[in-house]
Amino acid sequence: MYYKLINNKLLLLIKCLILFFLIIGIYIIYWYIYIRHFFSNIPYSTPTTVFSRIVDLEPNSLYSKQEIILMLVNNGYRNVNCVVKSGQFHVNKNSIDLFRRSFYFPDGVESSIYVRLTFYKNALIEIKNLLSDLNLSSIRIDPKLIALIQFNGKKKQIYLPINKYPNIFITMLLSIEDRRFFMHEGVNLYSIIRAFFINVIVGKNIQGGSTITQQLVKNLFLDNTRSMWRKINEGLLALVMDFIYSKNLILETYLNEVYLGHEKNEQVHGFSLASLYYFGCPINELSLEQYALLIGMLKGASLYNPWLHPYKALNRRNLVLYTLFKRHIINKKTYKILVMRALNVQDKSKIKKSYVILTQIIKKKLIKHFKNKTKSLFGIRVFTTLDIISQECVNKSTQESMLFFKRRMRLKNLEAAMVVINRFSGEIQAVLGGSDPYYLGYNRAYYARRSIGSLAKLIVYLTALEEPDKYQLNTWLSGKPIALALSNKNFWVPKNDNNQFVDKIMLIDAFVHSVNIPTVSLSMKLSLKKIVDKWKHFGLSEKQISMVPSIFLGSINLTPVEVGQIFQIIASGGNKLKLSLIKTILSSDGTLLYQNFPKPKRLASVESTFLMLYSMQEVVTKGTGKSLGSMFNYFNLAGKTGTTNNLVDSWFVGIDGTQVVVVWVGRDNNKSSQLYGASGAMEIYKKYLKNKHPKPLLILPPNTIKFFSIDKQGKIITDFLNKKVDRFLPMWCVVSNKFCYKH
């Protein structure tokens, strides 16, 4: 009986042990499958990286030295006294020595290169490779990382292969966090026992014995609860992970997954992103003390945040440096130099989301382009058309101007929007959706349709000038009062802004001074249908335009982007290039997914668009934009002001040698902004040009355009002895009608 009882207990014990090991086995198998699944899906958790446009520099390109410096600084390059590694530059009197980073461009990887950029006045005249002493025909500047778009969760990271991390950084990290990483099996019993005795002696938990593998397990799969069960679980999963994967893969994952801070509601993971976040440059360009700061933050990213707790962060960094000195990673001289240095983190204001509107637009376009192919969005690289110099200048000029307007007008709810477009390619180079560039609010540049006022006159005069048999810049227009009967039996009686009238006025003067009644008279001669058809020809839909005479003076609602498309056609000489924001999209493995190739479509003649551009230059020289012309009188700028009834909307479109800039100022409630086009929107454009040096607008007339001497009666002068020249005007000379020779 006694032996039977013992046998039963032994059998029960064996069964319990079998059950226990079975449960442990099932538990291990579960985590084995789960861990493998997680690692296989790492590529599908990598966010989309969005870059600014790639700048191609060539000799004789119109980039000033200051513009290049601004571009480099905004892209995280450092101005140093002696250039020794990539990511650095040095400014000389007439040149810049630049060590450009290596970069994976859409067409392949380009290694780092050390060059000298030489300038004369406001132009780049020479690019020389300082290592080979050979002149280069061009060089590309690596674009700026402007956004990370995460399509699931709130974790932000940039996944960087382990071979891209500097060896010295990995050596420093392992020396501090896990010196026996390549020797243990995921759990270091020696470290655990040592930490246990130290904690017992001190009487509190001051040291942990976790390996890097255990830390990775905790970060990925467990919470921060302090308990024996979690510690056992952590060790077990670390053994499983170490059994499945190589040390290099575990270390690579740790480098890219470790938590190092947060930005609002988004977490910053991985040393690669943390380097950009705290220092504004890639991790391979950091100094030793900066590496030490990041490594020190592993003990507590919030506690040792260098912006929130700089004193604690400095002490922690110096403790890491001291440990590295004691472990012979750095020598005494280096240690003494490094501990005396400041934290050297970037100003936190630099990481403000100045590209929030652009990021929002890109995200919507990607979702629309890839539709339901969610996995296609992970890890892709998007190269945009955004010009960081233009965007910075847009942000600065708008903030300064709006602060002034709000104080002067005492209007707190005054808003603004801007769009900057390359006039030849249709690429959107900067966009602003509201008066605060760092606030993700309503995107007025893309979605706010507002009455465009006198900007609509462009289409009226273009339509007329496309009939050279009837209309030229010296054609006389009636300025007498006019009343038009409407379909509702009422009358529309347009007025000039000054409430005065003239008998007649030359066509170019009516446009330059934005006179309303001659514009309406001209429109009625052309016919309402012809004007409406021209708007439709330029891309407006039936819903956007009505068959009413008031459209002659701007009762058409368009967004700033839509206005930019209209003026881009004129600025490019009549070719419409669909406005674009995305240049190239690459998959995570470098496969080309999308490439934008501008396809010009001719919508207006080169002659009529030349005459309109000339007239817009006259607006800036003599008309409603005269104050702009006096400030930038050597650049032949073109422009057009626009103001709607009761000063509700203030518009200005400016054109220089490379860009079309659309500016709108107004209030969302459609109440008066108390600003004309010239006193509101144009003032922002002035500040923009002060911040960003304009390029001269040089427009060459086609062979069919000739310049003639004109007298005050608007007639072509042939008798120069008896006639006084009033002005010179270009005219479209068509052989069939011989208009140019009538006088």
From TrEMBL:
<dbReference type="Pfam" id="PF00912">
    <property type="entry name" value="Transgly"/>
</dbReference>
<dbReference type="GO" id="GO:0071555">
    <property type="term" value="P:cell wall organization"/>
</dbReference>
<feature type="domain" description="Bifunctional transglycosylase second">
    <location>
        <begin position="57"/>
        <end position="140"/>
    </location>
</feature>
<dbReference type="GO" id="GO:0005886">
    <property type="term" value="C:plasma membrane"/>
</dbReference>
<feature type="domain" description="Glycosyl transferase family 51">
    <location>
        <begin position="151"/>
        <end position="323"/>
    </location>
</feature>
<dbReference type="GO" id="GO:0009252">
    <property type="term" value="P:peptidoglycan biosynthetic process"/>
</dbReference>
<keyword id="KW-0511">Multifunctional enzyme</keyword>
<dbReference type="InterPro" id="IPR001460">
    <property type="entry name" value="PCN-bd_Tpept"/>
</dbReference>
<keyword id="KW-1133">Transmembrane helix</keyword>
<dbReference type="GO" id="GO:0030288">
    <property type="term" value="C:outer membrane-bounded periplasmic space"/>
</dbReference>
<dbReference type="GO" id="GO:0009274">
    <property type="term" value="C:peptidoglycan-based cell wall"/>
</dbReference>
<dbReference type="InterPro" id="IPR001264">
    <property type="entry name" value="Glyco_trans_51"/>
</dbReference>
<dbReference type="GO" id="GO:0008955">
    <property type="term" value="F:peptidoglycan glycosyltransferase activity"/>
</dbReference>
<dbReference type="GO" id="GO:0008360">
    <property type="term" value="P:regulation of cell shape"/>
</dbReference>
<dbReference type="Pfam" id="PF00905">
    <property type="entry name" value="Transpeptidase"/>
</dbReference>
<dbReference type="InterPro" id="IPR028166">
    <property type="entry name" value="UB2H"/>
</dbReference>
<dbReference type="GO" id="GO:0006508">
    <property type="term" value="P:proteolysis"/>
</dbReference>
<dbReference type="InterPro" id="IPR023346">
    <property type="entry name" value="Lysozyme-like_dom_sf"/>
</dbReference>
<protein>
    <recommendedName>
        <fullName>Penicillin-binding protein 1B</fullName>
    </recommendedName>
</protein>
<keyword id="KW-0472">Membrane</keyword>
<keyword id="KW-0808">Transferase</keyword>
<comment type="similarity">
    <text>In the N-terminal section; belongs to the glycosyltransferase 51 family.</text>
</comment>
<dbReference type="InterPro" id="IPR036950">
    <property type="entry name" value="PBP_transglycosylase"/>
</dbReference>
<feature type="active site" description="Proton donor; for transglycosylase activity">
    <location>
        <position position="177"/>
    </location>
</feature>
<feature type="active site" description="Acyl-ester intermediate; for transpeptidase activity">
    <location>
        <position position="454"/>
    </location>
</feature>
<keyword id="KW-0121">Carboxypeptidase</keyword>
<keyword id="KW-0812">Transmembrane</keyword>
<keyword id="KW-0046">Antibiotic resistance</keyword>
<keyword id="KW-0961">Cell wall biogenesis/degradation</keyword>
<keyword id="KW-0573">Peptidoglycan synthesis</keyword>
<keyword id="KW-0328">Glycosyltransferase</keyword>
<feature type="domain" description="Penicillin-binding protein transpeptidase">
    <location>
        <begin position="417"/>
        <end position="688"/>
    </location>
</feature>
<dbReference type="Pfam" id="PF14814">
    <property type="entry name" value="UB2H"/>
</dbReference>
<keyword id="KW-0133">Cell shape</keyword>
<dbReference type="GO" id="GO:0008658">
    <property type="term" value="F:penicillin binding"/>
</dbReference>
<dbReference type="InterPro" id="IPR050396">
    <property type="entry name" value="Glycosyltr_51/Transpeptidase"/>
</dbReference>
<keyword id="KW-0378">Hydrolase</keyword>
<dbReference type="GO" id="GO:0009002">
    <property type="term" value="F:serine-type D-Ala-D-Ala carboxypeptidase activity"/>
</dbReference>
<comment type="function">
    <text>Cell wall formation. Synthesis of cross-linked peptidoglycan from the lipid intermediates. The enzyme has a penicillin-insensitive transglycosylase N-terminal domain (formation of linear glycan strands) and a penicillin-sensitive transpeptidase C-terminal domain (cross-linking of the peptide subunits).</text>
</comment>
<keyword id="KW-1003">Cell membrane</keyword>
<keyword id="KW-0645">Protease</keyword>
<feature type="transmembrane region" description="Helical">
    <location>
        <begin position="12"/>
        <end position="33"/>
    </location>
</feature>
